[in-house]
Recover the amino acids of this structure.
């Protein structure tokens, strides 16, 4: 039997990982809910954010600045992508929408590889994240605890944006009935661009936060993409609370099972996904919405 | 006829055979190596199955690597561990395991459609990768893969012939690919294949005409897994080594890219696409500075093709040739626009003078309700439809008429109540079963198969009537049975659409499409026909024609009609029921309804209540 200390420390790992996954998945879910399609370039945007943050961090030495720069750069890239390409796809069949975002993802990842090379680069923790905390039952790396805090704050900010602002109101109305929103005289195209930007921003932000833990590499996002798919399948695609709950569940599955046998932790995650699909095809909090 | 007979010598199969035979002589001139061609053929074989799944059935899977890897590793393990010494047997077992794995994964992932299906297959692909990498690494070699896979050998009457590398290997793969291609062509051109194409074209109407879509999808998924498993096994034989990245997400993605760039729905598309990237990769790798950039170039080409040339290389070329052919051969004799008969010209339809039919009930509806969460669309409906009558359901917008029709026709499941057709309970039956009992429905918004010709739209429905819910007649020739076409033409003639039988559906006018919508519903010889606002959107002239047509149809069967055009309803109906807010307001003959005070109030908007004081 694993000791209580190990168990608690894995529980915290799961929370930190889950909060990050929730952040990535909430970007995915906001884009899906409003635009009606799944962004297969989300993992690439995650990597793009990590690189942008990495460069800023190297140049300025400030991790806070890196967080802001990585998130904003990815958000701007998202705006440009929506404006230049994605919006041409709103009237095309869903598989074309998947294909184009998949292609964009490859172009982003391969551009990163062409510019920065394929090597993995370690990112040092910010100075305020160094050290280990004594939590009575176990010792825990300070930065991971801070990741949990940062991700929770970011999720809270997204929550405020969606549920307490005018834009959020329009986004939620757009999910319910895009045609009606258009008839109310709201400039829907502009909102859609903005939503894609916000979703991308969330992915880029998560990329910077995660970079000291998983290191930076061009294809660092592919695993995150797949795992965030699992998160939204479990939580229910298009549901913001679903992304958070699904993220935390997935994070805990990954880290608690790896305590028993790391070889099976990913397999366990997909097993739970299959189970959820079987029992609740719409996910825990999914509404039928657009499929 | 003569020109097509002349062209018959050049079937795609024969062209493929000639190209495969000529390549060993052509390739050196173009500086293409045997290895590049062999590898492309393996990917092409992998892609044949994927194209059946994605290009023809419309199911975009991102998890095909799971079956490629499963087939590959099983075959390689059997051979390297000397469990099996026959290459053919090892390939067979590997392919069979991939098929079973496909059955399991397909069963789970096909519970969802569209975006979900793509995401779930991707997740299963990744799960397979992790399975190979850790828990099963003792068998698969984990990250190292399985080295030492023997070259394929062929046992010819005791004389064992081992296939060498280079062009010998090419010849071996070319033979297998060619067989795979011929089989895939047959599948696509069979009645089974036509149903697959129908699913892509209109996944909602296909079950409504009586095909068990779920089983067709699952079988297509398994077919794709079989092709993938075989291709994976061949990869190990070709390389003498089974690489772990056969399972990777990159492999699934590369397959999707190849297929789309080469042309989805063409069968040869994946081969062309795979050759493009393999050759590009090998060419660019000669320049150290560019070595890794092939994927960037390929990704950019992909985005360009998806955005501007969505048919892909083979598809765009095919479409170009088709346009030129049509420009050369003016339209088929019956086809010029000015000859269009506007009217279906049914027997001069009598004013319906039948007295309200007193026959036995063909459909009994008891306390049926349909609720969506807190919203009640149909609250509590009980009614009887009598054999041979035309029953019209009218009521203000939002009364629940269309919902009721959808529940009765099996498109929606009732939340409560009981529905019996000719005495048997059909409350829980799906639209497929209901269709095979002899019930049909025409939709308020046209549900056609836009990729099919006019005649094929009806044939796909006749097919279900002939073949039942599901039949895997993959190798029957679609055109071998002229009776199906004849039956479809009979129906088209009834609706005045026969002159357009071979026209693309997209070119038809709205009124013609509306008639085609009815034609599809007639293919199962329905005893009971539901019609959901058949006159919606028609011009006054078209309306008059359609009213005659409906009268003619109702002379032969029971019809339940939902319609807003009151003139038409009162001319056509034997009996009318009025719905409001999900319940029955009134029921009776047209005369009774016309004089009913409640009905007048419902239609006039409740004058009493809202009259200003």
């Amino acid at each position: 039997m694993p000791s209580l200390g190990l168990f608690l420390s894995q529980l915290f790992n799961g929370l930190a990982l889950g909060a990050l996954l929730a952040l990535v998945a909430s970007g995915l879910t906001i884009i899906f809910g409003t635009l009606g399609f799944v962004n297969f370039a989300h993992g690439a945007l995650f990597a793009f954010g990590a690189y942008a943050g990495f460069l800023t961090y190297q140049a300025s030495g400030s991790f806070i600045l890196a967080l802001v720069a990585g998130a904003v750069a990815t958000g701007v890239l998202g705006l440009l992508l929506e404006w230049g390409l994605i919006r041409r796809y709103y009237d095309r069949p869903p598989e074309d929408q998947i294909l184009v975002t998949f292609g964009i993802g490859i172009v982003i990842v391969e551009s990163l590889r062409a510019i920065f090379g394929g090597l993995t680069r370690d990112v040092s923790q910010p100075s305020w994240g160094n050290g280990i905390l004594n939590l009575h039952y176990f010792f825990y790396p300070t930065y991971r605890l801070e990741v949990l805090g940062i991700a929770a704050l970011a999720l809270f900010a997204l929550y405020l944006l969606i549920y307490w602002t005018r834009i959020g109101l329009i986004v939620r109305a757009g999910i319910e009935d895009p045609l009606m929103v258009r008839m109310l005289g709201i400039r829907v195209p502009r909102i859609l661009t903005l939503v894609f930007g916000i979703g991308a921003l969330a992915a880029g932000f998560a990329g910077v936060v995660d970079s000291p833990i998983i290191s930076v590499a061009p294809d660092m996002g592919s695993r995150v993409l797949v795992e965030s798919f699992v998160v939204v399948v479990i939580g229910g695609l298009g549901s913001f609370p679903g992304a958070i709950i699904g993220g935390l569940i997935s994070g805990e599955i990954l880290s608690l099972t790896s305590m028993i046998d790391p070889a099976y932790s990913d397999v366990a995650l997909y097993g739970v996904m299959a189970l959820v699909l079987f029992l609740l095809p719409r996910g825990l909090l999914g509404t039928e919405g657009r499929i | 006829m003569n020109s097509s007979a002349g062209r018959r010598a050049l079937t795609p199969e024969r062209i493929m055979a000639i190209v495969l035979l000529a390549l060993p002589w052509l390739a050196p001139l173009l500086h293409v190596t045997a290895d590049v061609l062999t590898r492309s053929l393996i990917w092409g074989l992998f892609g044949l199955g994927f194209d059946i799944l994605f290009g023809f059935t419309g199911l975009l899977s991102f998890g095909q690597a799971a079956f490629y890897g499963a087939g590959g590793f099983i075959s390689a393990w059997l051979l390297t561990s000397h469990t099996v010494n026959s290459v053919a047997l090892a390939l067979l077992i590997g392919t069979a395991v991939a098929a079973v794995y496909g059955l399991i994964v397909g069963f789970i992932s096909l519970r969802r459609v569209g975006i979900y299906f793509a995401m779930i297959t991707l997740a299963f692909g990744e799960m397979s990768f992790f399975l190979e990498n850790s828990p099963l690494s003792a068998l698969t070699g984990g990250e190292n893969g399985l080295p030492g896979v023997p070259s394929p050998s062929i046992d010819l009457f005791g004389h064992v012939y081992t296939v060498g590398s280079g062009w010998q290997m090419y010849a071996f793969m070319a033979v297998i690919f060619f067989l795979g291609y011929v089989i895939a062509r047959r599948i696509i051109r069979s009645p089974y294949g036509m149903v697959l194409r129908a699913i892509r074209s209109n996944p909602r109407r296909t079950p409504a005409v009586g095909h068990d879509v779920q089983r067709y999808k699952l079988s297509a998924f398994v077919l794709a897994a079989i092709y993938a498993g075989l291709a994976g096994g061949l990869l190990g034989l070709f390389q003498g080594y089974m690489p772990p990245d056969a399972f990777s997400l990159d492999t699934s993605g590369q397959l999707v890219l190849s297929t789309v760039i080469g042309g989805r729905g063409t069968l040869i598309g994946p081969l062309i696409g795979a050759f493009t990237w393999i050759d590009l990769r090998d060419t660019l790798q000669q320049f150290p500075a560019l070595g890794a950039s092939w994927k960037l170039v390929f990704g950019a080409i992909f985005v360009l093709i998806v955005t501007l040339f969505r048919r892909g290389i083979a598809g765009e070329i095919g479409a170009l040739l088709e346009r030129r052919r049509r420009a050369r051969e003016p339209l088929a004799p019956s086809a010029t626009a000015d000859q269009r008969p506007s009217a279906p010209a049914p027997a001069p339809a009598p004013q319906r003078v039948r007295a309200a039919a007193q026959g036995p009930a063909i459909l009994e509806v008891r306390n049926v309700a349909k609720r969506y969460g807190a919203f009640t669309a149909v609250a509590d409906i009980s009614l009887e439809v009598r054999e041979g009558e035309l029953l019209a359901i009218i009521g203000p917008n939002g009364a629940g008429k269309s919902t009721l029709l959808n529940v009765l026709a099996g498109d929606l499941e009732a939340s409560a109540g009981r529905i019996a057709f000719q005495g048997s309970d059909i409350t829980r039956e799906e639209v497929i079963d209901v269709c095979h009992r002899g019930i049909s429905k025409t939709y308020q918004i046209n549900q056609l198969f836009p990729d099919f010709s006019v005649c094929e739209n009806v044939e796909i429905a006749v097919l279900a009537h002939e073949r039942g819910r599901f039949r895997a007649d993959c190798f029957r020739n679609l055109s071998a049975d002229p009776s199906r076409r004849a039956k479809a033409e009979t129906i088209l003639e009834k609706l005045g659409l026969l002159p357009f039988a071979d026209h693309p559906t997209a070119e038809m006018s709205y009124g013609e499409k509306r008639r085609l919508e009815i034609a599809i519903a007639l293919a199962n010889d329905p005893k009971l026909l539901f019609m959901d606002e058949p006159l919606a959107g028609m011009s006054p002239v078209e309306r008059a024609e359609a009213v005659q047509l409906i009268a003619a149809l109702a002379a032969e069967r029971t019809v339940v009609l939902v319609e807003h055009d009151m003139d038409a309803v009162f001319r056509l109906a034997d009996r009318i029921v009025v719905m409001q807010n999900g319940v029955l307001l009134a029921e009776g003959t047209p005369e009774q309804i016309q004089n009913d005070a409640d009905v007048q109030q419902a239609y006039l908007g409740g004058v009493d209540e809202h009259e200003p004081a």
Q: What stands out?
A: Chain A has eleven helices and two strands. The mean pLDDT of chain A is 87. The CA atoms of residues 25 and 228 of chain A lie 5 Å apart.
